[in-house]
Amino acid sequence: MEGVGFVGGGLALGSRPSAAAARCGRTTVSMGAESVKNRNRRVGIVDKVREQLDKSTLAFALPLEGYTVKEVSELRNVIPENSCALAVKNTLFRIAIADSTWDVAGDLTKGSNLWIFTEEADMKGTVEAIKKFNKEKKKEETNGISGGVMENTLYDGKGVEALSKLPSKQDLYQKIAIAINSVPTKVGRSINSVPTKVGRAIKLAKAEEEES
Fold first, then answer.
1. In a 3-state reduction of DSSP, which class is residue 188?
2. Cα-Cα end-to-end distance for the chain
3. For residue range 1-21, what is the model confidence (pLDDT) as tens digits?
């Protein structure tokens, strides 16, 4: 990745963090000789990834290579506030997801990745923001979504995009509430029409008797 360096599994960026970046936190670690301090910081990175996964409904990866430091910073600024973008070393990411419902994401830990963590309500907005950003930067071919995980199921890039277009639980609840609220009106109309229909049936029966 041009101009972007991993620092202990976290991505060191010099620009002012956005609200989304603030959610992710900022962890920097020297990759020199192994030390107790270094190990503790690596543990902190693993904990940070797990914390994001605990908050997220969907986690997906973008190839990191091809983005500049400035572009990564800009991308972090355009995704929804409650979403998070983290560049994490594959080894640390695999440790974070081990023995969890996210462990299938291990298949995506190849090359350098920018991981996106998002809650259900922000899935659509996050994916759309990234697609728009990549289109503007002409990165659609090189930095498109490589895959993601939701409810212990691994999806490819197209699958992640399809998931983002599904209605959220909140949307479904609203539709159900609207449907329920409309029931009394429909029932009332049906009930009110009964006397009329009954009256017509009685008249028709009398007419048939008179004819016979």
1. helix
2. 94
3. 544 444 444 444 444 556 665
